[in-house]
Automatic annotation (TrEMBL):
This is Thioredoxin. Keywords: Membrane, Redox-active center, Transmembrane, Transmembrane helix. Residues 32-173 form the Thioredoxin domain. Pfam families: AhpC-TSA. SUPFAM superfamilies: Thioredoxin-like (SSF52833). One of its GO terms (molecular function) is disulfide oxidoreductase activity. The chain crosses the membrane at residues 6-30. PROSITE patterns: THIOREDOXIN_1, THIOREDOXIN_2. It comes from the Bacteria. InterPro entries: AhpC/TSA, Thioredoxin-like_sf, Thioredoxin_CS, Thioredoxin_domain, Thioredoxin_ResA/DsbE_sf. The keyword NADP does not apply.
Length: 173
């Protein structure tokens, strides 16, 4: 049976429709995450290697940012996170990075950029934490804003831009 270009176009269209349907379904699932209590987790800190719990920042507005050194959009948004930490720290903001990478890779990278907020790290464990916060596809960068009472208020599944995140921070501080 000879399958011409029309046949293959139909197959591609079906695959695309299935992909879009899955994407829409996962978007709905993510939307349900907002308003829920944040999951508790512990990961090692880049600075000391000691385990740190997200609970250490209870009572603060937490911008939880999942990233990796090999992720170009992640690298581009880190200067914004550094600025936000500096600008809003005294009002109760805490940026918290979770690097899905090795300690050596992030330590050198963080030193180069002078990251001014805590960075936790791991590979499989960090991916599990990201999944517990709704990032089951492993999208990077991925950022979750957690209010002072520990509720997830906003999820960003893309590179952060100041006009998107700053109004959220101002409203919750």
């Amino acid at each position: 049976m000879n399958r011409g270009p029309l046949w293959w176009s139909l197959i591609v269209l079906i695959v695309l429709l299935v992909g879009v349907t899955i994407g829409i379904g996962s978007h709905t699932w993510y939307s349900n995450l907002e308003g829920s209590q944040r999951p508790v987790f512990t990961l090692p800190a880049m600075s000391s290697g000691k385990q740190k719990s997200i609970a250490e920042w209870d009572g603060k507005l937490v911008v939880l940012n999942f990233w990796a050194t090999w992720c170009e959009p992640c690298r581009r948004e880190i200067p914004l996170l550094i600025t936000l930490q500096r600008q809003y720290e005294e009002r109760g903001l805490q940026v918290l990075g979770v690097a899905i990478d090795s300690r050596v890779a992030i330590r050198d990278f963080a030193a180069t950029l002078s990251i001014n907020y805590p960075v936790l790290y791991g590979v499989e464990a960090a991916m599990d934490v990201a999944a517990s916060y709704g990032d089951e596809q492993g999208t990077l960068p991925y950022t979750v804003v957690i209010d002072r009472s520990g509720r997830i208020r906003q999820v960003f599944r893309k590179e952060l831009k100041r006009p998107d995140i700053e109004p959220v921070i101002r409203e919750l501080l």
